[in-house]
Amino acid sequence: MPLRRSSLLLALVVCCVIAFAVGFKRNAAPIAAQSFDIVILNGRVIDPESKLDAVRNLGVSGGKIQTISTKALTGRTTFDAKGLVVAPGFIDLHEHGQTPENYRAQAMDGVTSSFELEVGTADVDRWYAEREGKALVNFGVSIGHIPTRMAVMGDKGEWLPSGPAASRAATDSEIEELKRRIERGLNRGAVAVGFGPAYTPAASHWEIMEMFRVAARNGASCHVHLREAREPAIGALGEVIAAATITGAPLHVVHINSTGTQWTPRLLRIITEARSRGLDVTTECYPYVAGMTRIESALFDEGFQRRLGVDYKDLQWPETGERLTPETFDRYRKQGGGVIIFSNTDEMVRVAVVSPLTMIASDGIAFQNGKGHPRAAGTYSRILAQYVRKEKSLGLVDAINKMSLMPARRLERRAPVMKNKGRIRVGADADIVVFDAERVTDKATYERPTDYSEGFKYVLINGVVVVKDGKLQDGVAPGRALRAPVK
Fold this sequence. Notes:
Elements: H1 2-34, E1 38-47, E2 52-61, E3 64-69, E4 77-80, E5 85-88, E6 90-92, H2 100-107, E7 111-121, H3 124-131, E8 138-144, H4 145-153, H5 164-167, H6 172-187, E9 192-195, H7 205-217, E10 221-224, H8 233-247, E11 251-253, H9 256-260, H10 264-276, E12 281-285, E13 290-294, H11 304-308, E14 315-316, H12 326-335, E15 338-342, H13 346-354, E16 358-360, H14 375-390, H15 396-403, H16 405-411, E17 432-435, E18 456-461, E19 464-468, E20 471-472
Parallel strand pairs: 1-4, 1-5, 6-7, 7-8, 8-9, 9-10, 10-11, 11-12, 12-16
Antiparallel strand pairs: 1-2, 2-3, 5-17, 13-15, 14-15, 17-18, 18-19, 19-20
Helix pairs in contact: 4-6, 6-7, 7-8, 8-10
């Protein structure tokens, strides 16, 4: 009798377990489905890190990618991405226009993270505080040698130096003060150190190397606008490669096509050879034959035609669209402002864009009354339209890698927050772009530089939809500070 009772009891327990399991299975699917805030279905998912390139469904919750699945998913909001590409949001390492207007244009161009790393700032805490809780896209900054030099020397120039920070050599005590301020900026979470010897030509090689030493101690990459352009850029590149080699600081050369022009292939070869010897050297480019900078800067000091390989007719004043003459150049230089410089060729731009070395970065400048350079609004869609779809000189997966994973990896050692950017993987931040590869195109021109790109159907930043059905969404500001650890 005890044995029979035990058997009955065991059978009852087994039945209860089975019933519980069946009930749990019936209820599990709806619970799991309801847990996703956003589901993206049927898209061609491209992840440059894992090499995934296949139709998948994504589930997003809590600002993170929660699942990547071949199975159907349901959630509170569902987007059908059939026939569309789903990729990591693009990361711009070189955008001077850190303003709401520029952020809107960048989001419409697929950019989810925007950095000011060439010029940077002299006050890291204030720079981040000005954007906290207000930004459409993620944002980050370097501690900049240029603005720090301006602060130490009392240069009153607007953004770039036009006084002693451009024209005067620093004293030993000033160099020590520069080092102290650079160090403090890094301690306050700057993700890199920015340099522009072309704008501070009086800064000695020793001064630049001393700043590299500070960067090296803090594991920060040095983002450099080379001292010289055209053929002399070979020597200017040698200057910073030497500084990186001696100090151990990682080096990132900005807009190599803009500085190198017809000598770009030689600069790329030098970087390739430096990397083959174990040096941490990277570079970037933008897909336009013209650049833009301040006309009152040291770049346009006497002899600029020889240094830059341009003449007055190659300079365009954005506000009027006119090409300059000696007379208008002098007038606008006294006034100050941005000027567009036509100094390159389509061939050299293509050489830079398709190189496996280069990341894509816009070098965009803040729009002024709707005027400026089209690269601030159209860089990333131009890569996809011109070089991927039309010319087929660059593969789609390679292009996405250049615009997402490569820039994330450039920064992630110092700023671990970047380890969850530039990827489509479980646990990564839900910075996602969904676009039509057959339709995406840039619309911004030199005459209408603020026109938004077309073809990006959805853009998510930290799991928040900022572009829906190709239109910006009002009342959202999901951008977060991208910052190195603060000491």
